[in-house]
Amino acid sequence: MLPKSTFKVVMLGEGIPFQSSSLPHPLLGRVGKTSLTTKYCLGQFNENEESTINASYLQKEIELGGQKKTLAIWVYHCCA
Ligand SMILES: Nc1nc2c(ncn2[C@@H]2O[C@H](COP(=O)(O)OP(=O)(O)OP(=O)(O)O)[C@@H](O)[C@H]2O)c(=O)[nH]1
Ligand SMILES: [Mg+2]
């Protein structure tokens, strides 16, 4: 169980059914989940970001109501 000062955040990106999409398969669901999370947690952006394999994890320390909290952020690949 997570400590009370830790909030779990899950990033999900809706995929597009392959049959109804005109996009090439590698682009399906690549809505920028990892990029948004990496920018928020680490202040970095990689324009050649690789597609996440299954899931990735980052943490961000924040202050809320004068108290220190931790965001535990899970990023799931759209097709995981
Ligand atoms: N120009 C631009 N490109 C972006 C932005 N956000 C993400 N990208 C690019 O879009 C592509 C997909 O971004 P990702 O963050 O990998 O997307 P994702 O949703 O994590 O994709 P999966 O891990 O495959 O589910 C990458 O090449 C990024 O560099 C943005 O705000 N602007
Ligand atoms: Mg990703």
Write the layout of secondary structure elements.
Elements lengths: L5 E6 L21 H10 L12 E10 L2 E10 L4
Parallel strand pairs: 1-3
Antiparallel strand pairs: 2-3
The protein binds guanosine-5'-triphosphate and magnesium ion.
The site of magnesium ion (MG) has 6 residues, from helix 1.
Summarize this structure as a short list of keywords or feature phrases:
elongated; 80 residues; three-stranded mixed beta sheet; binds guanosine-5'-triphosphate; binds magnesium ion; mainly beta; Rossmann fold
Walk me through the structure.
- This protein has 80 residues and is mostly beta strands.
- It has one domain (6-78): 3-Layer(aba) Sandwich (Rossmann fold).
- The protein contains 1 helix and 3 strands, in the order E-H-E-E.
- The protein has a 3-stranded mixed beta sheet, with helices on one face.
- A hairpin with a 2-residue loop joins strand 2 and strand 3.
- The longest helix is centred in the middle third of the chain and has 10 residues, at 33-42.
- It is elongated, with a radius of gyration of 15 Å.
- It starts with 5 loop residues before the first strand and ends with a strand.
- The mean pLDDT is 84.
- Guanosine-5'-triphosphate is lined by residues 13, 29-35, 46-47, 49, 51-52, 77-78.
N-to-C order of helices and strands: EHEE
Enter the CATH topology name. Answer: Rossmann fold
Q: Describe the sheet with the most strands.
A: 3 strands, mixed
> Mind telling me which CATH architecture this is?
3-Layer(aba) Sandwich
Number of domains: 1
Number of DSSP strand runs? 3
- Order of strands, main sheet, comes to 1-3-2
Overall mean pLDDT:
84
Helix content: 10-25%
CATH homologous superfamily name? P-loop containing nucleotide triphosphate hydrolases
The kinds of small molecule bound in this structure are: guanosine-5'-triphosphate, magnesium ion
- The shape is elongated
Low-confidence stretches: none
User: What's the alpha carbon Rg, rounded to whole Å?
Assistant: 15 Å
Give the end-to-end Cα distance, rounded to a whole number of Å. 23 Å
How much of the sequence is in beta strands?
25-35%
Structural class: mainly beta
CATH class: Alpha Beta
The tally of helices reads 1
